[in-house]
Automatic annotation (TrEMBL):
Domain Rieske: 421-510
InterPro entries found in the cross-reference section: FAD-dep_OxRdtase (IPR006076), FAD/NAD-bd_sf (IPR036188), Rieske_2Fe-2S (IPR017941), Rieske_2Fe-2S_sf (IPR036922), Rieske_Fe-S_prot_C (IPR005805), YhfW_C (IPR038010)
GO molecular function, one term: monooxygenase activity
Name of the protein: Glycine/D-amino acid oxidase
Species this chain originates from: Alkalicoccus daliensis
One Gene Ontology term, aspect cellular component: cytoplasm
One Pfam family matching this protein: Rieske
Length: 510
């Protein structure tokens, strides 16, 4: 079948990691790590290896967030990043950014060997390629940045892609892997070391005091010396103004079985719309081709199936496709200045930490973040601490991009509150469809499942009150302001929101 799969399903989550119990009591520990993705699991693992008592909690299943829906490139080549980093931060800081990622890749490779992790970790060359003259000129600027920073890469006019390119910049010895298999082995280590791990344990608040306390949805409390918010989007702001300093994008991936040779290497184009290309291994050991891209601001597009379709068409145009077994999407956070926020949320306080804003490159940088935070907690110096501190201020980028981002949020907020023309009639909904409707004279969200059962929710986001949009590709209600996502019954799928939507009505099929 060359059609898209009817439902979104990630290749990496074909087989979920081992399961863990939910927290059912109050506990006291040195560190509470919130979030079961690459940052959270790696942080708990590093702390356990240093003999520091930690507890790891996850609102859903381990790897159920962005780490389970990535393209899983482990790379220091983040598009045409280094010329812009030099312009914003200078050469020394740009080189530190590269070194932080390279250190993380090397650590992951060491752990794969040391723990015998079967996660298809493979060193691959990484390319950014141009198909236009403008793209080639931007690549030339990046080549100059590589030269100034002495990065391990070069200009290349040859790739294994089945279409011509104007030019490409290649970085040696990058990597790719299966993220959940990697995390599963780290979790197994935590089990052996008696580090408590809890799933279906949702943190809804953090209270500061002599020692911070993490409050769960079910009423249980974890008291700790340190708390790590490894929750993708920090759900507790603590006056750090993350809502004004983070931009949320959603992007898509489609997996293809193809005839003929699958290109070696990892690829990203220099132009828009983005096209990310890599090979992967399916559960039966067969090679797949992954094509990703089509990014847009989260919650600002209803027909996201069009994004999947664009990737499908790209695959059909350039490869001999046999079938399409998987499609999935993920959310990514961008900071104002292009550098992730990693470290203490509040300057001068070592009690609560976060890691956010990896800009679509969270595999290597997520491990780098775990190292920085583990070093903070264990009192070890880290050369990258200052570079990524969440409290930094970069005038040239922060002011300009903060104004731009907050104008976008304001427009989305006002549009949602004032828009009445786009409301649909409830009776017009077909099975399997969702839409914004009029319900008792008010804006509401309705979804009719395949059996004709209708669920109606209040579409006001419980984070900061923006009005949600329907996402037909993932069957969810998405926030255009800060990226919170909700299931059709109102359950929170992604933060920063922690409270579910109000369910207004559930109607059995007639």
């Amino acid at each position: 079948m060359k059609n898209l799969p009817p439902e979104s399903k990630s290749l990496w989550r074909e087989k979920a990691p081992q399961s863990f119990p939910a927290l059912k009591e109050d506990i006291d520990t040195e560190v509470c790590v919130i979030g079961g993705g690459i940052v959270g699991v790696s942080t708990a693992f590093m702390l356990a290896r240093r003999g520091i008592k930690a507890a790891l909690i996850e609102a859903d299943r381990m790897g159920a967030g962005t780490s389970g829906y990535t393209t899983a490139k482990i790379s220091s080549q983040h598009g045409l990043k280094y010329s812009s980093l030099i312009d914003t931060f200078g050469e020394q800081e740009a080189r530190l950014y590269y070194d932080a990622n390279e250190d993380a890749i090397a650590w992951m490779e060491r752990m794969c060997k040391k723990l015998a992790i079967d996660c298809n970790f493979e060193r691959q060359a990484s390319y950014v390629y141009a198909e236009t003259q403008e793209g080639a000129e931007n690549i030339n600027k990046e080549v100059e940045a590589y030269r100034r920073l002495e990065l391990d890469g070069r200009l290349s006019e040859e790739t294994e892609l089945p279409f011509p390119v104007e030019s490409a910049i290649m970085m040696h010895d990058q990597a790719q892997f299966h993220p959940l298999r990697f995390l599963s082995k780290l979790l197994r280590y935590l089990e052996v070391e008696n580090t408590p791990v809890y799933e279906n344990t949702k943190a809804v608040d953090i209270k500061r005091g002599k020692r911070p306390q993490v409050l769960m949805e079910n009423g249980n409390v974890i008291t700790a010396d340190h708390v790590v918010m490894a929750t993708h989007y920090p759900f507790k702001d603590l006056q750090a103004l993350f809502a004004a300093r983070l931009h949320v994008e959603r992007s898509y991936a489609v997996a293809f079985r193809i005839e003929g040779k699958i290109p070696q290497g990892m690829y990203l184009n220099a132009e828009s719309p983005k096209r990310s290309i890599r090979n992967a291994v399916d559960p039966d050991g067969n090679r797949l081709l992954l094509i990703g891209g089509e990014g847009h601001t989260s919650g600002q597009k209803d027909d996201t199936l069009q994004n999947y379709e664009a990737l499908r068409q790209f695959g059909l145009e350039h490869f001999k496709v046999k079938d399409i077994p998987y499609r999935w999407s993920a959310q990514d956070l961008m900071t104002l200045d292009g550098m992730p926020y990693i470290g203490p949320v509040t300057p001068g306080k070592e009690d609560i930490f976060t890691a956010a804003g990896f800009g679509k490159w969270g595999m290597a940088m997520g491990v780098g973040a775990a190292t920085i935070i583990a070093d903070h907690i264990s009192g070890k110096n880290n050369p990258y601490t200052k570079l990524f501190t969440p409290s930094r201020f970069t005038p040239s980028q922060d002011i300009k991009n903060a104004v731009k981002e907050n104008m976008s949020v304001a427009r989305s907020y006002v549009k949602g509150k004032m828009d009445r023309k786009s409301r649909n009639k409830l009776e017009d909904l077909a099975n399997g469809e969702g839409a914004v409707v009029n319900f008792d004279g008010n804006r509401a969200g309705a979804y009719k499942n395949e059996h004709g059962e209708i669920t109606i929710v209040d579409t006001t986001c419980t984070h900061m009150g923006c009005e949600l949009s329907w996402n037909n590709g993932e069957t969810s209600w998405d926030c255009p302001c800060h990226g919170s996502r909700f299931d059709v019954d109102g359950t929170v799928l992604e933060g920063p929101a922690v409270k579910p939507l109000t369910q207004l009505k559930k109607e059995e099929p007639k």
